[in-house]
Amino acid sequence: MQVVIIEDEKKAARNLVNIIKEIDDTITILAVIESVERGIEWFRKHEIPDLIFSDIQLSDGVSFLIFQEVRINAPIIFCTAFDEYLMQAFDTNAISYLLKPIDREQINAALDKYSSMQEVFQAKTPLEKMGTLISQLNYQYKSSLLINYGDKIIPIKIENIACFYWEETRLLIITGNNQQFYYNSSLDEIQKQLNPDLFYRGNRQFIINRTFVTGAERYFTRRLIAKLSVDTPEKIIISKEKSSAFLEWLSNQS
To answer: Are residues 112 and 183 located together in one domain of the fold?
Structure first.
């Protein structure tokens, strides 16, 4: 995923970059833009990123001026110290409005929300959507993975994998009998190869197999914790934005 940050305070920009990288180090920060003038210039010369984090009050005006001058169809997460711009922000492509000081939990929730809303920002014609649907119907999801384990190559059936966990810089597989293996892939790439009826992207760290889901528990601020029948490195927290979709997915078990 490619991200642009619009922020004129160096300390705030640096903090935001660090938090984003802590959450997902595969995210590429294309630019940190500190003014309206430079923002207009940058967006006119470069391709639109996947996501924008934007402060509102910049040194030479408000960031809304950028979006008025340049057509930008990317979703925007606003990060500001003022709540007075809330309604104006949602006249743009805003998906979240975060009040400073920004912390890791806020950014993580906003990124989860972005993931759940990605299709909204994929501008496809009806013909392109039909082509995508046909491709998905014809697509053969993975039935097994080959794991390098020492000098051995071990086949593991997908249905026996309880979850995939992104562990800082590598992908960990946890099987239904609590075996653990590392696999050379990213969470985004492996998600494309999995049947969504069986596997669910719980958050930016976990993809879980419904076969091994034993239930869910309510958590702070209307979030959920998905419970598996195997041990996991950390709690599987489902954001409040994704909790309804998760419960619907869980209720559709055959």
So the answer is: no
Query: Which candidate, 170, 172, 192, 19, places its Cα nearest to that of 109?
Result: 19
- What is the rounded average pLDDT of the residues 28-43? 95
The whole-number pLDDT of residue 85 equals 75
Is residue 239 located within the same domain as residue 163? yes
Name the residue among 121, 119, 194 with its Cα closest to residue 158.
194
Domain count, the chain: 2
Domain containing residue 47: 2-121
Per-residue pLDDT reduced to its tens digit, 185-202: 998 889 888 988 899 999
Q: Which two tokens stand for residue 186?
A: 């990213």
- The larger pLDDT score, comparing residue 140 to residue 130, is at 140
The answer on 92 and 60 residing in a single domain is: yes
SS (H, E, C) 72-118: CCCCEEEEECCCCCHHHHCCCCEEEEEECCCCHHHHHHHHHHHHHHH
